[in-house]
């Protein structure tokens, strides 16, 4: 692999291996299907998607990309996991999703080709899987138009997150395949805020994502101690 690409080959392989299961709501991707309506509505409430040109960075099999297109956005989904992208493309054809395209390209490369081209950029559940998350944040800033919104979601790095996101989710509840996450790659909100400030993005909102294993229910609140999302804006 080209060493200048900000991607971990092992991470790409991991998600490519699971590609065929992306659109099975009872598969390893069940949590993504469950949280997608929550994050979609949060994004849409802050930056109404209808009529917008939207980029979904690290789109995987296209769960969020597809739902944003159905809200009326023209969506481009990008990823470097080839098999996952093929699944996304196939699903868009089968579901006849309007106004959606997928590209196999690094976000940094796209930022050089199409700077300030998008009204909204989303980068969800991706930063904790790349070698240099700050580079991704900078590229997202470069891709969004002045005044546009950039949304990130990731996992906090602390003992509670280790217990819930790795031990609980991967080993006890087996909601995710073992090895999905590496604790050392988790990102504290203060670190993500620093990446955003350095890139020129201004943080405006944050939300935590909570899960009750007994009721199997997710909801949003102000607790960012484990899974969290932030909304940032490019000045201008």
Keywords, please?
single chain, 236 residues, alpha/beta, Rossmann fold, eight-stranded mixed β-sheet, 8 helices, 25% strand
Write the SSE topology:
Blueprint: H1 9-17, H2 30-46, E1 53-57, H3 63-70, E2 74-79, H4 82-95, E3 100-104, H5 107-113, E4 118-124, H6 133-143, E5 144-155, H7 159-172, H8 189-199, E6 202-212, E7 217-221, E8 227-233
Parallel strand pairs: 1-2, 1-4, 2-3, 4-5
Antiparallel strand pairs: 5-8, 6-7, 6-8
Helix pairs in contact: 2-3, 5-6, 6-8
Walk me through what this model shows.
With 236 residues, the protein is of the alpha/beta class. It has a single domain, classed as Rossmann fold. The protein has 8 helices and 8 strands. Strands 3-2-1-4-5-8-6-7 form an 8-stranded mixed β-sheet. Helix 2 packs across helix 3. The radius of gyration is 16 Å and the shape is globular.
Instruction: Report the average pLDDT across residues.
Output: 91
CATH topology: Rossmann fold
β-sheet strand percentage: 15-25%
Which sequence of SSEs, written as H and E, runs from N to C? HHEHEHEHEHEHHEEE
Rough shape? Answer: globular
Question: How many helices does DSSP assign?
Answer: 8
CATH superfamily: Vaccinia Virus protein VP39
Judged by helices, strands and strand pairing, the structural class is: alpha/beta
Number of strands: 8
Supply the CATH class. Answer: Alpha Beta
Second rung of CATH, namely the architecture = 3-Layer(aba) Sandwich
């Amino acid at each position: 692999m080209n060493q200048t690409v900000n991607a971990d080959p092992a991470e790409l392989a991991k998600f490519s291996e699971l590609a065929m299961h992306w659109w099975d709501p009872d598969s390893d991707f069940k949590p993504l299907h469950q949280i997608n309506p929550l994050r979609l509505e949060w994004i849409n409430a802050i930056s109404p998607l209808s009529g917008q040109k939207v980029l979904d960075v690290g789109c995987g099999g296209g769960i969020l990309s597809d739902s944003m297109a159905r809200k009326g956005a023209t969506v481009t989904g990008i990823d470097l996991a080839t098999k996952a992208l093929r699944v996304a493309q196939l699903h868009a054809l089968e579901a006849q999703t309007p106004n959606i395209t997928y590209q196999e390209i690094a976000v940094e490369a796209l930022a050089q080709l199409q700077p300030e081209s998008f009204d909204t950029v989303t980068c969800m559940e991706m930063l904790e899987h790349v070698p240099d998350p700050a580079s991704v944040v900078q590229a997202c800033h470069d891709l969004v138009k002045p005044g546009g919104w950039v949304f990130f979601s990731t996992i906090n790095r602390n003992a509670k997150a280790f217990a819930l996101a790795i031990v609980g989710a991967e080993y006890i509840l087996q909601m995710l395949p073992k090895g999905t996450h590496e604790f050392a790659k988790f990102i504290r909100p203060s670190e993500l805020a620093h990446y955003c400030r350095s890139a020129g993005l201004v943080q405006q909102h944050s939300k935590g994502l909570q899960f009750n294993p007994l009721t199997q229910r997710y909801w949003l609140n102000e607790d960012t101690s484990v899974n969290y999302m932030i909304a940032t804006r490019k000045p201008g």
